[in-house]
């Protein structure tokens, strides 16, 4: 049965999450992961002992170590804090200030969580600014410059609303690969949205407010027509992409409602049913749990931190769009891995959205791969599959 709220004890809070326990447990874990690595380096020599007989030695070993590392992260309760400093990014790093409160209405309005200044990274660099055109129904006939026709990706990274920044250290490889596959001149803006952990924990609807801030930055400040914008989200980032689509469709207000819709929306290993992810037992007993590096404790942790009971239910339309399909003019590409625990909910979401008259949905299931190979296929040993799914997504965009 779907849960309305994640378990009360889903957020780590024992002695290992506080000093000196945090440091002690990290030191213990160094020895622990070394022993695990030694054991599985021998164990997985035999193909029959791997998580899947179709996996290579590298895939089995890398996925196992990732799962152990994620377990340790959960045990110590580590979450990431963010900075608005550009660092070495220079002009590729942009700061975006909130728009007027009118743009954050409906489900994104909150008495306690308000829009804040956020940052984002351009790949490979920012496009030249155009004159802001808030209403542009025929932009393809009025532009001459190649930059005015190229695609612009607005990307929302995953990681359970607890980690990552969209900067090159964690997202650069995929950002560059996606740009290359989308064609000449393609650029992407990877949002560093507020997280539900770290030194400024911001639950729902904070990250959703940040999607509006970023979208308005592209359309108003950069003068980019929505018909050039491709929304992209992986894992929990897909939750944000779909929330933005629903908001633009139903609650955007008169200004944004008069704009053309985004060009397309690409979802990779999407989190689209938080009423499932917030149930640690359901996730842990899923048939694909042995072949995925994510587990029920990790999923429930993210769900509880992002969606506290006093704020929103897990079966809310903005958190579980698989349960609440809606009409949209934006074509949607959905990819899932056949060996990940989100496979069923991703397919169910695609089927539900496809059943709505007028929707254009394409679903790709890549066999025998775990969660979010779109982002870490090159790390875990599935580089070919990573390229395959991005190729398919780019072909989808070219066809819309």
Can you tell me about this structure?
The protein is α/β, with parallel strands linked by helices and 400 residues long. It has two domains: 15-76; 90-398, 3-Layer(aba) Sandwich (Rossmann fold), CATH 3.40.50.1820. 38% of the residues lie in helices and 11% in strands. The chain has 13 helices and eight strands. It has helices at 21-43, 57-76, 139-142, 168-182, 206-221, 236-250, 253-257, 274-277, 280-284, 296-306, 343-354, 373-380, 383-398; strands at 93-96, 118-123, 152-156, 187-192, 229-234, 264-268, 332-337, 361-366. It has an eight-stranded mixed sheet, sandwiched between helices. Strand 3 (152-156), helix 4 and strand 4 form a beta-alpha-beta unit. The longest helix has 23 residues, at 21-43. The protein is globular. Residues 135-144 have low confidence and may be disordered. Keywords: Hydrolase, Membrane, Transmembrane, Transmembrane helix. The chain crosses the membrane at residues 22-46. InterPro entries: AB_hydrolase_3 (IPR013094), AB_hydrolase_fold (IPR029058), GDXG_lipolytic_enzyme (IPR050300).
Secondary structure topology:
Elements: H1 21-43, H2 57-76, E1 93-96, E2 118-123, H3 139-142, E3 152-156, H4 168-182, E4 187-192, H5 206-221, E5 229-234, H6 236-250, H7 253-257, E6 264-268, H8 274-277, H9 280-284, H10 296-306, E7 332-337, H11 343-354, E8 361-366, H12 373-380, H13 383-398
Parallel strand pairs: 3-4, 3-5, 5-6, 6-7, 7-8
Antiparallel strand pairs: 1-2, 2-4
Helix pairs in contact: 1-2, 4-13, 5-6, 12-13
